[in-house]
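Thread: sanity check for a docking pose with adenosine-5'-triphosphate

Original post by kr_44:
Hi all, I'm comparing my docking run against an independent structure prediction. Below are the sequence and the ligand SMILES. Could someone generate the full complex and paste the structure tokens? I mainly care about where the ligand ends up relative to the chain.
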Amino acid sequence: MTEKPVIEASNLSLTFQTGDGPVHALKDVDLEIGKGEFVSFIGPSGCGKTTFLRCIAALETPTAGRLTVNGMSPDEARKARSYGYVFQAAGLYPWRTIAGNVRLPLEIMGYSKEDQAARVEKVLSLVDLEGFGKKFPWQLSGGMQQRASIARALAFDAEILLMDEPFGALDEIVRDKLNEELLKLWSATNKTIGFVTHSIPEAVYLSTKIVVMSPRPGRIHEVIESTLPKGPRPLDIRDSEEFLKIAHQVREGLRAGHAYDE
Ligand SMILES: Nc1ncnc2c1ncn2[C@@H]1O[C@H](COP(=O)(O)OP(=O)(O)OP(=O)(O)O)[C@@H](O)[C@H]1O
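Reply from moderator J.T.:
Ran it for you. Here is the predicted complex with adenosine-5'-triphosphate included:
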């Protein structure tokens, strides 16, 4: 990697002290994510995927190790608005229109009214929701609501997009479509994406790099570099030999990570 990594973790650990004793959510995590990479985190429940994303976003504080985001501490990166965050539930305010929801971070950040309007229009069109700005969230399907929440995370044009199982609650057909759209959007914007998922096909279809994690303690079991072409990928790439090979490798990694636990 010639350019400096956008996200760099070394020996990163986070132990939660709970009533039942310490929980090692992350243990000695080493990872570099370069600019423009699409990195998926996959692994069984409790292996620390969300915790790792939350550390990047300065929503959790690691108990040991080093983590930099754009060369800064996560807290500095948060203040510099280095990332947008998309949660599993769309989390739109029901009393605000779609445009009003997408505009919210811009209002908080003090963008001018003109700039707000221009940015809202641009990102709604990026996620294929032009013309829906005046609707309320309940008037949109689940997939459209999730697209609106992606637009909100894109509105201030952060370099990094953190996505925690954004499509987990959607049916497979909608999910396929959003996967395809997300890849196009990523190619068009060259953002760096960290994406949590439980789905092997989703991880393989989307990613340039797949981080296979295992639980107790939460750690990286294996990092798989994708050999699929970078950029938009047709959905039927999932039938290709190359795709199936990578999916197999991820499945084996998940299995081995589990076996280690027993
Ligand atoms: N605030 C907290 N206090 C105590 N324990 C926590 C806290 N947050 C997470 N944990 C524990 O840390 C471990 C890792 O949790 P995390 O949510 O990161 O896992 P995950 O891989 O994202 O799981 P899932 O796939 O279910 O979302 C789990 O054992 C979880 O119970």
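Strands lie at 7-18, 21-33, 38-42, 64-69, 83-86, 160-164, 192-197, 209-214, 219-225. Hope that helps with the comparison, let us know if your pose agrees.
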